[in-house]
Amino acid sequence: MKSIYLILNWVTGLFFILLGLLFIFFDPFSAGIPFIILSFLFLPPIQKVIIEKTKKNLSITVKALSIVMSFILSMTLFTLDMSDKAEASMAKQNQINEFTQNKQQIIDSLQKNFEAKNYHTVISEIDKHTKVINDQDLNLLRVKAEKGVKVEKVLSELEKLPEEDTAGQIKGYQALLKLVPDNQDYKDKLAYFEKTAKAQHLAQIEKELRKKESKLLSELENLAEDDMQGQVKSYQALVNLLPDNQEYKDKLAYFEKAAEAQRLAQIEKELRKKESTLLSKLENLAEDDTQGQIKSYQALVKLLPDNEEYKDKLAHFEKVAEAQRLARIKQENKKKEQEILAHLKTLKKDDTQGNINAYKQLTELFPNNEKYKKKFTALSKAENEKKLFEYRTHLISFTR
User: Fold this and answer.
1) To 10 degrees, what angle do helices 246-283 and 290-303 make?
2) Total domains, the chain
3) Fewest CB within a 10 Å sphere: which of 237, 283, 291, 335?
4) Which residues contact 375 (CB under 8 A, 6 or more apart)?
5) pLDDT tens for residues 194-235?
6) Residue 289, SS3?
7) 141 with 171, same domain?
């Protein structure tokens, strides 16, 4: 019996929970609350807590009265809710009917407010109507009003900007033209401020150029008059800065020419210094030191290749050196000749090979000496005949 009672409590409690949830999910919300509360009296876990807290058992009579009261309360709430919804639906329909009947008057009134730039009022009034009806004319007018609000906001921001803030003005009028692309006044204002901004930009560039020009001119004043490279560098910078300034270009050309002349003069000075050093060395050389003379004049010709005097001197000493070389060779050959001739005197007459070698050396020393060539040829021929005779004699004795 106790188990049946427990099951009945669970079933009843769950039934009222489901009933309450149905009302909550499918409206009206308030009608479901009493049934949810009523389910607490039947669900065993909650029922147990209530008994522990109150120290009293819930009788069937209490539960029955609770069920009746919950139904009465729920139905009352349901009726009231339905009545409110019916009134709201009727009010909505009345509003729709009123708008439909008076649409043109409403639109005209809104249009007047729009033309008076009461954009917030227009939006507020349109929102009242669009809560109950979706009308295309109202939607279009609301879009225009919203655009008007944005335009007013941009114009208000532009009023706060100083006129010299061309970047801010340009940005503002560009935003306005995005909202109202056909507004000629905004186009003119944008063109004006863009032109002004360009003029300011050019003025700023001009100012910076003049500042840099002044700095370069100040540097020029501090340069020494003979500092041609410094002058060239400064005027080059000025011409790069102001390429159309003819005065600076002329000054640059003048100082470049002067710098080149100064450079050539310096080169000439260095050449003369080196020439002087070489000539000083020449003065200290002995007259017969032809190699030293040649070396010095070669250095002078290399230093001053167009100097005919040095080239002639070089050619002269090279010729002298060659003559000295040939004389040395001739003297050495003569000495060798005497040594070979002295050696020939020591040789025996029958030492044909020694004589041949000696005359061969003499022929190599003096290839144009006919006497030595004839003697060498005759000795060589005699030696060959002697060897041939000996060979024949040996061959005959061998065959016998």
Assistant:
1) 180
2) 5
3) 283
4) 359
5) 998 899 899 999 899 899 989 988 888 888 878 888 888 998
6) coil
7) yes
